[in-house]
């Protein structure tokens, strides 16, 4: 029978591999800047997992996902639908910060992606909420939903269904909270989209 410790152990194994991952494309960058990889945080039994693209500066300095301005917005959005952050799991596709916060490269997404795949297999969420374009494309492709891919402005807030080894999951593309840092209209849009998650609490 699976135990909490089993999931914790398996997730710790991923963390240890990433910390030691000299083969990773951003490993040298991490050492040079004396920062941390950002593995993920939250409940190992989360019904909802949020996936961003890559850590920003604050995240790399602390090793915690979504702890800067975007993180504050994510916390507010979760609060608005009555879901404590501790009940969800939050991570990124790419676990190290790309230099100058540039977009992750296809090679980086391909190299770090399998770690995310394993996190999904271990946590077995009912809902995968992608934050931003990169994680939306990665997850839609992973679950064979690529034929339904459109721009995020058309996809956000919609619910897609996918089959996984642990049963059916809902995939819900959302804007990345960063879009709302300087644009309150986008925050209203995000709030509206987050309402969709309420039914999966």
UniProtKB/TrEMBL annotation:
<dbReference type="Pfam" id="PF03167">
    <property type="entry name" value="UDG"/>
</dbReference>
<protein>
    <recommendedName>
        <fullName>Type-4 uracil-DNA glycosylase</fullName>
        <ecNumber>3.2.2.27</ecNumber>
    </recommendedName>
</protein>
<dbReference type="InterPro" id="IPR036895">
    <property type="entry name" value="Uracil-DNA_glycosylase-like_sf"/>
</dbReference>
<dbReference type="GO" id="GO:0046872">
    <property type="term" value="F:metal ion binding"/>
</dbReference>
<dbReference type="InterPro" id="IPR005273">
    <property type="entry name" value="Ura-DNA_glyco_family4"/>
</dbReference>
<dbReference type="GO" id="GO:0051539">
    <property type="term" value="F:4 iron, 4 sulfur cluster binding"/>
</dbReference>
<keyword id="KW-0227">DNA damage</keyword>
<dbReference type="GO" id="GO:0004844">
    <property type="term" value="F:uracil DNA N-glycosylase activity"/>
</dbReference>
<dbReference type="InterPro" id="IPR005122">
    <property type="entry name" value="Uracil-DNA_glycosylase-like"/>
</dbReference>
<keyword id="KW-0004">4Fe-4S</keyword>
<dbReference type="InterPro" id="IPR051536">
    <property type="entry name" value="UDG_Type-4/5"/>
</dbReference>
<feature type="domain" description="Uracil-DNA glycosylase-like">
    <location>
        <begin position="39"/>
        <end position="201"/>
    </location>
</feature>
<keyword id="KW-0479">Metal-binding</keyword>
<keyword id="KW-0408">Iron</keyword>
<keyword id="KW-0378">Hydrolase</keyword>
<keyword id="KW-0234">DNA repair</keyword>
<comment type="similarity">
    <text>Belongs to the uracil-DNA glycosylase (UDG) superfamily. Type 4 (UDGa) family.</text>
</comment>
<dbReference type="GO" id="GO:0006281">
    <property type="term" value="P:DNA repair"/>
</dbReference>
<keyword id="KW-0411">Iron-sulfur</keyword>
